Predict the structure of Endonuclease III.
Amino acid sequence: MAKRETKAQRAERVLKVLEAMDREYGTEYRCYLNHETPWQLLIAVIMSAQCTDARVNIVTKDLFQKYDTLEKFAEADLKELERDIHSTGFYHNKAKNIIACCKELVERYNGEVPSTIEELTSLAGVGRKTANVIRGNIYGEPSIVVDTHVKRISRKLGFAKEEDPEKIEYELMKVIPKDHWILWNIQIITLGRSICFARSPKCEECFLREYCPSAETKETAKPKSRKGESS
């Protein structure tokens, strides 16, 4: 792959990547966080910061039975809620934000989760990532969620250069067709969890290998194995 790429060449490569992703993972919208209502998803996403979706799902299984209404979360005792979500990490700030967010939803929005980016990000503990998860999964609004997988793999593919998640979001909005904004996060998470690991990516097994500058670099710069090392 050439070191320099024209806009037309990159646009063509983007389409090939998207086509390959669609073939491999399908185009079904799905959410990895278990929920039955919009406010449950909002709470789950707040808890997912610096925590795996699998752990959050374990916690919410009992949590959403104990606090089965938005009002119960709004009126929850801080220390008790901290204990309930302790295993998700950063439990003090998360519990404080969950209670404050739920109070705002009850008092300002009559228990409804708002749909605009401005309203969502005005809620306690809700940044652009959380807001875009809600907009995409609940309201079907085209949005790009920049989590650790999206940030890392988008940069490896050469579709983003920035470090700041919000700036990466805007970069990707210019590169990825709007009809794939929601799918990008869903498909990239699957890729990041199965093939493109942060520490030891399986480039030789990746179906995007021929379109990925990082895979080519890894192959051409592959170090020779030393005596006693496994290949």
